[in-house]
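Collaboration report, partner site 2.

Our partner group contributed sequences for two proteins of shared interest, and the home lab folded both. The records are reproduced in the order in which they were received, starting with the first partner submission.
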Amino acid sequence: MARRPIPAGRGGNLPGTHSFLKGGGPYAIGGGRTGDRDSGGRMAEASGLMRGKRGLVMGVANNRSIAWGIARACHAHGAELAFTYQGDALKKRVEPLAAEVGGLVVGHCDVGEPATIDAAFAKVAENWGSLDFLVHAIAFSDKDQLLGRYVDTTADNFTNTMLISCYSFTAVAQRAEKLMTNGGSLLTLTYYGAEKWMPHYNVMGVAKAALEASVRYLAADLGRKAIRVNAISAGPVKTLAAAGVRDFRYILSWCEHNTPLRRNVAVEEIGNAGVYFLSDLSSGVTGEIHHVDSGYHILGMKHPDAPDLTVAKD
C-alpha cells in the first residue's frame, strides 16, 4: 500500500511536498478578482479566457493549496473543473471546495495504485468525453529522511518518492493523452531544490529534478498531438505541506529579504501563471520550467542590504 502523497501546494514546497505561503495580489489576469462572487454566492467569472475548457486538478489538500489557487484562477476565467482526492480525510476537504466552483469530484485516486488512476479518468470520460487540461500537484517522501543527509536515503524511500513525486506525472499523462483529442495542456509543480541544493529537501530534490526532465521528454512525445507540457517552480508558500517543513519560517524570511522583489509570492500569483499555461495564451509554449518566486532563482548570494538571519531553535 503506497504512502499517502502530500498534495503539492507548491511546485516543490519542502519536505517531500510542495507548499508555501504567499502574501499578495488577489487579482487575476483580465482584471477580475478571483475572490469576487455573484449574488448567489458563486465565484464570478473574470473573463472568458478559459470558457469552454475542462480540466482535472489532482492534489488539492485544502483552500491554501497551490493546486486550489490554480483551480480558482482557472474557474474565474470560465473553466469547468474536476477534482480527485485521496482517502476520506481529503475527501471531506475537497468536496466543499469543488462545490464552491461548481466542480465535479471524480473520486479517490492514489497515484501509487494504477487502478484508482484508471477509475478517475474513466469518470472524467464518462462525464465529459474529453479533457483540455490537467494539473498535477502531488508529491511524497518520508519526512524523517528529509531532516538528515541525502546520502542516508533508503532504497525503499528513494523508490517510493520517485514513484509518487515523479512517475505519477507520466502515469496521468498516459491517461490524459487519450482524452485530449483536440490537444491540451499538462501542468505540474516543481521547486528550486531540483536545480540547487536546498536544506531539508534531500531525495525530493532528486525527484523534482527527474520530474523536470520528464516535462521535457513528455513535451517532445506529445507535441505532435498539440498537447503541451510545462511546470511551475514556485517560491515558498504557507500550505498544509509546508507546515511540516523544518526551519520554514526562516526560509520565508530569507526569501522576503533577499529576492529581487523583496517579498514572497502569493498563491494567487501562482494561480495566474497556471491560467497562462493552461489557456491558449501559452499556445506556443511547451517543455518550460517557469519560476514564480519573486526572482529567487537568479540569486547567487545573500543581498548586501538584507539583514543577517539566524535559525530559531525550538
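Second partner submission, folded after the first:
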Amino acid sequence: MLTEWEGLLQRRPTFHETLEPLSRVFRAWAEWQGERPAPLRWSAEACRACWSKGAPLLAQASPSIAPDSLESLLDSGLEVLALFEEDVREFAGAWDHGEIGPTALFPERGRIASIEVQERSQLSQNALAFLAVVGLRPALDAYFADCREYIEDSGWDLGICPCCGAPPGFADLLEDGRRQLICHVCGTGWTFARLACPFCGTRAAADFVRLMAEGPDEGYAVSACRSCRGYVKELDHRVRWNTGCGLVEDWGSPHLDLIAHRQEFWRPIPTLIQLVPPAE
C-alpha cells in the first residue's frame, strides 16, 4: 500500500503536509517483519455455516498474535495520536506490562476494541479504532486470506465485515454497479445493498443523502444516513479507475470527511478529521 499512498500524495500535493503523519503508518506496514499468524484454513462450508448464523469468522476462530510482533506498528500509530494531543502513555504502559494485548483491539459488537481497554488506556474510541487498524491490519489480512473467496454468494448481507466483524471504513461502486464495503481492520470487501445503511440497517429512501464531489474529485461521494447520522465515503469506479485501495483513498480524502463532519455525520473508523481534538 505504500506505493499507492505515495501515488495519492503526488495526485494531491496540496494535502501532502496534512497527510504526512499517516505516511509513517504505511512505511511501518511496508517494513513490518513481525510473525504473521497462520492463515485460517476453514472450508467454504465451515465459513458459510458461521456466516449463516450472522457471526463473523473472528467470533469463532481467533488467531494467535504475539504482542511483540505488533509493537513497531503500534509505535507508528501512537506517534500519530500523540500529534493530535492524545495522551498515549497509559496505553503504552499497559501494553508493555501485558495488561493490553492484541485481542483487546479486536472488533466487538457495536465497537472496535473492548470497553475495558478504553477504560484502562483512557484513549478515545476514535483513537482505539485507529490503533486497531494500524496494529491489526497486516496480521488479520494474512489470517483471512484463504477465506475471502467464499464470501461471494454466501448470503452475508450485514453491515459488518464477515471476517473480523468491524464496521466498514469505505465503499467502492464497482464497474457492474454493485456496492462493495471495505474493512480497514482486515482488508476484506463484501457486497452490500446500495439502498441500505450499514450502520442502522434502514432501507427507507428518505433517510439517505449523497454528498457528491465535483471537479477533480468527481467520482467520490459521502453516503450518509439521516436516521443514525452515520456515513461512509464511496468511490465510483465507473468514473475513476486509476485509484488506490479503499484505505488509501479513504485516508487520502479528509476534505470529504470535513464536509460530513460539519453536517454532524459520524463514522466508526476515524480519519485525521476525527482524530483532531474538539475546539474548546
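Feedback sent to the partner group on the second submission included the following. The first strand starts at residue 107 and ends at 108. The chain has a mean pLDDT of 94.
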